């Protein structure tokens, strides 16, 4: 037994010595061929770095659990209609009902964001992001304030005290990390709040929130606005199917007791909170991961081609080692070790590039497009992915030359006898790799081409207004000086007068919501209708609004000075609303009530019909919208006036008025902060930011794949010319013209490229369907894009072939024949 053990140890030691010897030999071999080594490492670094960067984002956003204890039990609870993957917000009565009766959850919490609150003191006033939550918020998430305490149920009641919990960021930024903040009073929206807690530094919920306030839901609320985002924590052992079944039964109970409060096909549903957060970006990230995988495959094909070329140059070395008794497996082992060394170094460099790549992607991404952006880091999973990708690519691109080594004919090779069968086999393999590169690059480039068509189509969309030479900004008056519609109107009227009088301003207007910025829906019903028939975009505007926006009144008239609080209530509707509600009927003179359940009880007469404007995005159809004059805004809907969006049409560059606008606002009320001061063209540009982001990333990867493919074609053709130097020299010596030589070489390269294009087109018909949801006004099989990209790639291949072919025409036949 002792002898067997000793023999086993000796064998292991021998294997380790063989590996170490192969590693040292591989390092020396790679150092000797510095050019090959540098190109291979850089190519691998680009491929592995791009993959690691995108995987890091995929891992952090889609795969990593949310930063809360047992986050897999956190669910979004809300209304569900036809699509189970879409969960809508709840109204206060529905939340109260569920909170009282649901049994599948440990607790439920309702949340609501207020991004236009402001914090003020004697020195400064700043906008802050407020998060309103019900008392069980901290219990549901499994987090507690780092100092102080959470809300009590009494504080969350309508009569509760005004208390607030600060974020760690606001505490440090505004209050200098003052440890004595607990118990102090701060002013939010001109009202006093007592600080009772400070959140941990790593806490984040639906983006960065500055303060957390109690929601104070009234148990007897009749508010039908569905604006509560509800999150629940499942009890241990309760499955999502069980919870979904209970919610369905509870909805039937709620509907029986409140038939007027439910819509057709509505029910209660739930969705994983992580899925709800990442739903909009999930498909894009998987597409990008697939794109960079294609780039890595192209890189591997390139390196494999280089390795095959290098293996041919080393065939005599391998034959001598075989003749001296080296086993085939040892030679294969040697080539695999060299490939692994290249992949390891390329992986290390790729990891550095990945860090830069992640930062670049986050910098390019529009605000809010990538959820959980603050959590994106290169963790152990990303490191394991890099290591795995490096090992896998090392094996892949080393496998072909290693297997070819097994077919080396020692006698033929040592005789230096021209082109061997093995060499011809390698040529066929190199040609096959080039074809694969072209096909992959074409599929990737066609995807980028379709996104480019989408981007161009978006810029051709008419938004329904003229954004050029328009400046916009927001002011959100709060507090006792603005607690009635009359006070708000007085402030807005004075502000519009001052802004209109500024040099360079043609006219100024006001609205509660800008197009392409945010939606604000209120229910409506027509005259003689008892029930609410739907919801509509509700806009309160000053009379100059249509003139500033250069919107056209299609029928009737715009608002004027005669539309006062004491005159007949009037309203203007857009063409979408008119078509939907007055088909075949003249809408002028018809009456409707918009915002009836929110305090705007007036039955308003339609005096005009305006053109449609895009609201949610340029890709979505213009929604139905109504416009109410500022002078007739109802007291019950004064909340719509809390955010005043000013619009100024200027005679020149809108940005040049920024300083003057800020000065006027300070003179109007120094306690009111201003935000979102920018030209309206920036708002339009922001509406296509997501598509621009898609195009840049996929276009960058397509360009990288195209570059690697061009290098691969060039490398194969350059080696082919070198290999056929004697043949070309003989042709020229026998009288062949340069054009004939050029045609011979070009034919070889372009044949490979065209085969790759044909295969790539076939593959693209299937692959481009994956990005169908990212396209706008262009088919996933758009013929123009397919033809244009195919011609572009063919042109690139033509150039890659032409350079070696041109070199072939300059072969000196005397030198070529003398070498033979």
Largest sheet: 6 strands, mixed, barrel
Strand content: 15-25%
Give me the side-by-side strand order of the main sheet.
2-3-8-5-7-6
- Poorly predicted residue ranges: 417-422
Explain what this protein looks like in three dimensions.
The chain is an alpha+beta fold. It folds into three domains: 346 residues, no CATH class; 181 residues, no CATH class; 196 residues, no CATH class. A six-stranded mixed beta barrel has the order 2-3-8-5-7-6. The chain is elongated. The chain starts with a helix and ends with a helix. The relative contact order is 0.11.
In short:
The chain has 820 residues and is of the alpha+beta class.
Fold topology:
Layout: H1 2-32, H2 34-63, E1 74-80, H3 92-101, E2 105-120, E3 125-133, H4 137-141, E4 147-148, E5 163-166, H5 168-175, E6 185-188, E7 191-198, E8 211-214, E9 229-234, H6 240-257, E10 267-272, H7 273-313, H8 315-323, H9 328-364, H10 380-405, H11 410-414, H12 421-459, E11 470-475, H13 485-500, E12 505-511, E13 521-526, E14 534-541, H14 545-549, E15 553-556, E16 570-574, H15 575-581, E17 591-594, E18 604-610, E19 625-629, E20 644-650, H16 658-668, E21 674-679, H17 680-687, H18 689-723, H19 725-733, H20 738-767, H21 783-808, H22 813-819
Parallel strand pairs: 3-8, 5-7, 14-19, 16-18
Antiparallel strand pairs: 1-9, 1-10, 2-3, 2-6, 2-9, 4-7, 5-8, 6-7, 11-20, 11-21, 12-20, 13-14, 13-17, 15-18, 16-19, 17-18
Helix pairs in contact: 1-9, 2-7, 2-9, 2-10, 7-10, 7-12, 7-18, 9-10, 12-18, 12-20, 12-21, 13-16, 18-20, 18-21, 19-22, 20-21
């Amino acid at each position: 037994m002792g002898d067997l053990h000793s023999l086993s140890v000796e064998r292991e030691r021998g294997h380790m010595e063989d590996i170490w010897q192969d590693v040292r030999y591989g390092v020396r071999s790679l150092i000797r061929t510095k050019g090959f080594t540098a190109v291979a490492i850089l190519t691998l670094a680009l491929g592995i770095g791009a993959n690691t960067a995108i995987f890091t984002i995929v891992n952090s956003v889609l795969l990593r659990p949310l930063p809360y204890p047992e986050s897999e039990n956190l669910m979004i609870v809300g209304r569900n209609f036809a699509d189970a993957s879409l969960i809508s917000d709840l109204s206060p009565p529905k939340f109260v009902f569920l909170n009282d009766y649901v049994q599948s959850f440990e607790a439920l919490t309702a949340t609501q964001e207020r991004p236009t609150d402001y914090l003020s003191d004697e020195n400064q006033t700043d906008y802050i992001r407020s998060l309103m939550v019900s008392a069980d918020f901290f219990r549901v998430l499994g987090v507690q304030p780092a100092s102080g305490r959470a809300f009590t149920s009494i504080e969350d009641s309508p009569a509760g005290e005004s208390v607030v919990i600060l974020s760690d960021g606001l505490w440090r930024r505004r209050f200098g990390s003052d440890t004595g903040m607990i118990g102090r009073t701060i002013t939010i929206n001109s009202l006093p709040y007592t600080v009772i807690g400070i959140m941990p530094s790593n806490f984040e919920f639906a983006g960065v929130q500055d303060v957390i306030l109690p929601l104070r839901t009234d148990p007897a609320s009749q508010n039908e606005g569905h604006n509560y985002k509800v999150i629940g924590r499942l009890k241990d052992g309760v499955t999502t199917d069980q919870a979904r079944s209970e919610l369905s039964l509870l909805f039937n109970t709620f509907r029986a007791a409140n038939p007027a409060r439910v819509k057709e096909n509505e029910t209660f549903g739930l969705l994983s909170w992580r899925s709800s957060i990442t739903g909009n970006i999930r498909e894009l990230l998987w597409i990008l991961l697939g794109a960079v995988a294609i780039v890595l495959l192209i890189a591997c094909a390139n390196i494999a081609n280089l390795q095959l070329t290098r293996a041919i140059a080393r065939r005599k070395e391998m034959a001598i080692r075989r003749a001296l008794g080296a086993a085939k497996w040892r030679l294969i082992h040697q080539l695999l070790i060299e490939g692994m060394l290249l992949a390891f170094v390329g992986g290390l460099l790729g990891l550095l590039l990945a860090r830069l790549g992640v930062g670049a992607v986050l910098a390019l991404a529009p605000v809010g497009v990538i959820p959980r952006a603050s959590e994106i880091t290169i963790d152990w999973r990303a490191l394991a992915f890099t290591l795995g990708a490096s090992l896998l690519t090392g094996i892949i691109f080393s496998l072909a030359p290693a297997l070819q080594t097994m077919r080396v004919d020692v006698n033929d090779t040592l005789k230096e006898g021209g082109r061997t069968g093995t060499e011809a086999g390698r040529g066929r393999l190199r040609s096959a790799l080039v074809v694969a590169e072209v096909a992959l690059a074409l599929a990737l480039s066609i995807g980028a081409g379709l996104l480019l068509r989408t981007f161009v189509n978006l810029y051709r969309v008419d938004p329904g207004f003229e954004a050029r030479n328009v400046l916009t900004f927001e002011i959100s008056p709060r507090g006792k000086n603005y607690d009635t519609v009359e006070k708000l109107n007085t402030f807005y009227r004075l502000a519009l007068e001052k802004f209109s009088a500024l040099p360079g301003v043609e006219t100024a207007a006001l609205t509660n919501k800008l197009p392409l910025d945010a939606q604000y829906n209120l229910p409506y019903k027509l005259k003689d209708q008892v029930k609410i028939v739907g919801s509509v975009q509700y806009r309160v505007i000053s009379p100059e609004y249509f003139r500033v926006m250069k919107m056209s009144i299609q029928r009737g008239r715009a608002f004027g000075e005669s539309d006062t609080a004491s005159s007949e209530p009037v309203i203007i509707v857009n063409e979408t609303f008119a078509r939907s509600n007055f088909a075949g009927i003249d809408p002028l003179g018809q009456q409707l009530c918009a915002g009836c359940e929110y305090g705007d009880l007036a039955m308003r007469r339609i005096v005009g019909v305006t053109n449609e404007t895009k609201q949610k995005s340029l890709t979505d159809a213009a929604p139905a919208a109504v416009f109410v004059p500022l002078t007739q805004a109802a007291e019950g809907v004064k909340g719509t006036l809390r955010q005043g969006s000013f619009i100024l049409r200027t005679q020149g560059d809108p940005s040049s008025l920024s300083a003057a606008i800020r000065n006027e606002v300070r003179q109007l009320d120094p306690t009111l902060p201003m935000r979102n001061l920018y030209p309206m063209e920036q708002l339009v540009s922001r509406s296509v930011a997501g598509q621009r982001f898609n195009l840049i990333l996929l276009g960058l990867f397509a360009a990288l794949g195209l570059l690697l493919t061009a290098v691969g074609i060039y490398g194969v053709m350059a080696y082919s010319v070198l290999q056929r130097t004697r043949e070309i020299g003989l042709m020229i010596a026998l009288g062949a013209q340069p054009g004939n030589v050029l045609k011979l070489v070009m034919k070889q390269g372009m044949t490979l490229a065209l085969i790759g294009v044909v295969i790539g087109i076939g593959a693209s018909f299937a692959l481009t369907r994956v990005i169908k949801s990212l396209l706008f006004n262009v088919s996933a099989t758009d013929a123009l894009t397919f033809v244009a990209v195919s011609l572009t790639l063919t042109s690139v291949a033509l150039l890659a072939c032409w350079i070696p072919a041109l070199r072939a025409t300059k072969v000196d036949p005397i030198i070529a024949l003398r070498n033979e």
